[in-house]
């Protein structure tokens, strides 16, 4: 009997928590959720292009931002957290993005004011041009094109169990070598061997290779 009451109590508590969670989420419109995702995306907390829907990736990204901002890690996108997030300035000026596929196709876009729009444009370009559009992956990064510095993009691919896996890496540096080294280092961290990676493009602040 006690066991039955304990299970019933646990179920009620779980339902209450789910209800509170959904109420917290419903405080925001879909447009506000999209804006919050865009801010998380352009601050490098969210890795998926915003879609205006709250999923686990969005909540994990929110928790990571809360951790950095030294706020309670509730992982709930309430109106209060939305307002705080909109005040968070990632300090970015211009955006670039690059998308590539396992068939060797790649598309790079530069100088966008929005990281989300840059990523969308690069991904759409790759999917339109590639013979394997489902294999297109993307990465976006920010760079102040009015100042010094270099940006390097590296594309890596490896054979998985059933199909090839492709991934882009884009990094900035004060020199061409520094940007390239950081991009290849990121690929190594992601378990790609150097022989599986190719430099796609390296540009300086004036757009010169």
Elements, N to C (H/E): HHHHEEHEEEHE
* Computed CA radius of gyration, to the nearest angstrom: 21 Å
Low-confidence segments: 11-25
Rounded average pLDDT: 77
Strand content: 15-25%
Oligomer: single chain
Largest sheet: 3 strands, antiparallel
How many beta-strand elements? 6
Estimate the global geometry from the Cα principal axes.
globular
Helicity level: 40-55%
Total domain units: 2
- What gap, in angstroms, lies between the N and C termini? 75 Å
Give the helix/strand class: alpha+beta
Enumerate how many helices there are, as a single number: 6
Record the strand order, biggest sheet: 2-1-3
Write out key terms for the chains shown.
globular, single chain, 6 helices, 22% strand, alpha+beta, 209 residues, three-stranded antiparallel β-sheet, 2 domains
How does this model look, in words?
This protein is α+β, with helices and mostly antiparallel strands. It has two domains: 2-87, no CATH class; 95-204, no CATH class. The chain has helices at 2-25, 30-42, 56-68, 79-87, 115-129, 176-189, and strands spanning 95-100, 106-112, 137-142, 150-159, 164-173, 197-204. It has a three-stranded antiparallel β-sheet with strand order 2-1-3, with helices on one face. The protein has a three-stranded antiparallel β-sheet with strand order 5-4-6. It is globular. The model is unreliable at 11-25 (pLDDT under 50). InterPro entries: PGBD-like_sf (IPR036365).
Q: Can you summarize this structure?
A:
The protein has 209 residues and is α+β, with helices and mostly antiparallel strands. Helix content is 42%, strand content 22%. It has 6 helices and 6 strands, in the order H-H-H-H-E-E-H-E-E-E-H-E.
């Amino acid at each position: 009997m006690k066991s039955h009451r304990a299970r019933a109590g646990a179920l009620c508590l779980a339902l209450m928590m789910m209800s509170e969670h959904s109420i917290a989420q419903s405080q925001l419109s879909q447009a506000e959720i999209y804006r919050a995702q865009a801010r998380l995306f352009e601050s490098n907390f969210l890795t998926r292009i915003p879609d205006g829907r709250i999923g686990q990736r969005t909540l994990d990204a929110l928790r990571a931002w809360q951790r950095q901002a030294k706020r309670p890690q509730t992982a709930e996108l309430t109106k209060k957290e939305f307002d705080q997030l909109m005040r968070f300035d990632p300090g970015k000026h211009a955006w670039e993005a690059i998308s590539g596929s396992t068939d060797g196709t790649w598309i790079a876009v530069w100088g966008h004011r929005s990281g989300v729009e840059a990523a969308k444009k690069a991904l759409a370009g790759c999917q339109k041009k590639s013979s394997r559009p489902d294999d297109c992956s993307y990465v976006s990064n920010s760079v102040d094109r009015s100042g010094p510095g270099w940006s390097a993009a590296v594309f890596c691919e490896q054979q998985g169990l059933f199909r090839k896996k492709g991934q882009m890496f884009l990094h900035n540096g004060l020199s061409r070598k520094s940007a390239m080294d950081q991009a290849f280092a990121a690929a190594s961290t992601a378990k790609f061997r150097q022989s599986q990676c190719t430099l796609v493009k390296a540009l300086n602040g004036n757009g010169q290779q």
